[in-house]
Amino acid sequence: MSSASVRLTALSHGAGCACKLPLSALDQLMVSLGSMPGGGGSPGTAGLGPDLLIGAAEADDAAVVRLDDERALVATTDFFTPIVDDPGDWGRIAAANALSDVYAMGGRPLLALNITAWPGETLPLDLLAEVLRGGASVAAAAGCVVAGGHTIDDPEPKYGMAVIGLADPGRLLRLDTARPGDSLVLTKPVGTGVVATAHKRSAAPDDVLAAAVEAMTTLNAAASEAALAAGVTAATDVTGFSLLGHLHRMLRASGCSAVVDAAAVPLLPGARDLTAAGYVSGGTRNNMSFLQPWVTIAPGVPTDVAILLRDAQTSGGLLLATSDPSSLVSELSARNVTAAVIGTITSGDTGHIDVPA
Question: Which of 17, 19, 144, 256 does the annotation list as catalytic?
Answer without folding.
Answer: 17
